[in-house]
Amino acid sequence: MSNFAIFLVMLLLGYVIGKINELNHYKSIRLREGKLKNLPMITYGKKKVFHNYKEGSLCTGSVVIANDYYKKIGATIINLIGGRVTFYESLIDRARREAALRMKTEANEQGAKAIVNVRFETSTIGGQSGKKKGIGSIEVLAYGTALIEK
Amino acid sequence: MILTNLESVPGKNITEHYGMVQGSTVRAKHFGRDFMAGLKNIVGGELKGYTELLHESRNESIERMKKQAEHFGANAIVNIRFATSSITQGASELFVYGTAVKVE
Q1: Among A19, A78, A86, B11, which is most exposed with the fewest C-beta within 10 angstroms?
Q2: How many whole angstroms separate alpha carbon A83 and alpha carbon B43?
Q3: What percent of chain A stands above pLDDT 70?
Q4: What residues in A contact B8, CB-CB < 8 Å?
Q5: pLDDT recorded at residue A126
Q6: For residues B24 and B26, what is the distance between their CA atoms, to the nearest angstrom?
Q7: How do residues B50-92 score in pLDDT, each as one tens digit?
Q8: What separation in angstroms does the CA of B11 have from each of A47, A53, A149, B104?
Q9: Span A71-99, average pLDDT
Q10: Mean per-residue pLDDT of chain A
Q11: Surface-to-core class of residue B54, CB atoms within 10 Å of its CB (0-12 exposed, 13-18 middle, 19+ buried)
Q12: B59 Cβ under 8 Å from any chain A Cβ
């Protein structure tokens, strides 16, 4: 009985605090994306030769976002019945946008006009030992070359 | 040392080509940060400790790659790629590789 009570408390905590964290994070993401929207992120450019720019430098941004209990349980249920795991979609979306924003911020500080050949790397980190299957946290790394004008 | 993930360096020409250089680190977390991560796995949110760890690992790997390139006499590394993987719980490997070249 007490085990079930602990489970419910963790679920509730996960849901409430997780939801609040997520909403605040999204608000912050939207604000910063608005400020940096004039700095384009371009995914081509690897084989192009750029003559009009003074230099290019590697800029990176990364973030690690933890899974919460509510998402983990939700995903476990969906793993039984199948379908889109909407619980993880917001986690991955937040992480990707945050990593891209950090890369853009670093490029902006160097006075870049555009970031070319942007690539993303995603991986999961750790996870609870044993207990339930599920991801622990996800890391997203975004990197590209910042073009600094002459 | 110029670093870029393009195949050429903007505004410069590649004159010599030295081959692949790489750098990697494996870092483990200490108990304090891992405990916080355990708590955060209930409520979610960013794991600043891990982000910092990976940021440091990345910088360390890039330094090792740069040292290897300097050893060849290169002054730029092009076509850089990253690979991350989790080794055991709380330890992650970051691998960085690229091609060392001389530009002017």
Answers
A1: A86
A2: 24
A3: 94
A4: 48-50
A5: 65
A6: 7
A7: 888 888 888 999 999 999 999 999 999 999 999 877 777 667 7
A8: 14, 6, 10, 9
A9: 91
A10: 88
A11: buried
A12: no
Report which listed range, A39-43, A68-72, A130-134, is most confident: A39-43
User: What is the H or E stretch that residue B62 is in?
Assistant: helix B48-72
CB contact under 8 A, B44 and A136: no
CA gap A135, B41 in Å, rounded: 10
What tokens does A17 get?
A: 């605090």
What token pair was written down for B96?
Answer: 């960085």
Q: Which residue has the tokens 């476990």?
A: A76
Cite the DSSP H helix spans in A45-85. 69-81
Burial profile B71-100: b = 16 or more Cβ within 10 angstroms, e = fewer: eeebbbbbbbebebebeeebebebbbbbbb
- Which of B13, B33, B47 best tests the A interface by mutation, with the highest count of A CBs <10 A? B47
Global ipTM: 0.74
Residue B48 CA, chain-centre distance (Å), reads 18
Candidate from A22, A56, A136 with C-beta closest to B10 = A56
